[in-house]
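Wed. Picked up where I left off yesterday with Methyltransferase domain-containing protein. The coffee machine is broken again, so keeping this brief.
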Amino acid sequence: MHTPLVARCLRGLEAVVAAEVLGSGLGAVTELRHREVHFCTQRAMPLRTADDVFLLAARRPDVGSTRQALHDLAELADPAGIDHLLSLRRHSATTPAPEFTGIDVSASFLGRRTFTRYDAEDVVGQALARRLRVPYHSRRAGTPPPAGCWGWRLTLDGTRATLMLRLDERPLHRRAYKQRTIPGTLHPPLAAAMARLADIRPGHVVLDPCCGAGTLLIEAALAQPDARFRGYDVSADAVAAARANAGELPVAIRLGDAGRLPLPDDSVDRVLCNPPWGTQVQARGLLANAPSHWWTELHRVLAPDGTAVLLLPDRDDLATAIRHHFTPVHVERLRLFGAQPFLVRLVPAAGAGRVTAIQPRGRATSGRR
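Structure written out below (tokens, as returned):
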């Protein structure tokens, strides 16, 4: 039997998540919507590019923007097949489910409304609790749900209201390897999407010159463990965090300045990076006074047939990449915690000249720009 599932993701990554579903042989993608990928499958499997995966419970037309119609959402809690849905949850989860002792609901909606997300959550949550005869844990107070609460998701997108049941005990974006974090740590599903776009092959040398807590390299190593991974960061705290998170994975993390990398010319096949352009983390080292060093070094170490997948905060940075002799071959605008960065895949421009690159101890050698 094919089970209808919904993968939730960052806005802008819907096509990437759909490609992972199809590439993993999970089943057929039936629909792409705002932050959602609907698909049918016969087997459960974690999706690394998705924030979370849910069983589709019920749908109805959106109730609109006013509080008066909010009570109509309660009908979502009484689908004819809800007992079968709970059985699927018990047997389809990729991790063992604890004893079912209660429910919680998380809601989101598009557009202005005269009600809050908590109003919508409580209408559906209380109706579900009555239907299932279990306690309802409201999120109004900001306290996390207790163990044994099965998570439900409610979305209202202006066209329809959708109710879903989380497939696993915890959201997929909460990675077990994340033992340590630092400011500016990248969202793991986005890191997994960047690694997927990079098309890393066995034997490739993969570099993150500003690796932070190591999320990009770790996601890439989990996807393609037969490549070689190198990470540098000017912060000793970041290096320590990345090493702790990487554990036994084949990821080498060292202290180093992205403006002066200890790597030969043309020695890197893939670059994955969320550069420190001052949005969450300020540039340090050589980049603090001369950000152009980052682009010069990137072009120097990247092989002529290499690829760089980067997260850039705005159009000016994309224009800077072009000025530094990179050609964009993929550009996607994302919505990420209030910001709208660009996810870009770059290749060295054909016929780019060579310039003098900055090298340790003042020695200048030939490098590509």
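Quick read: Residues 354-369 have pLDDT under 50 and may be disordered.
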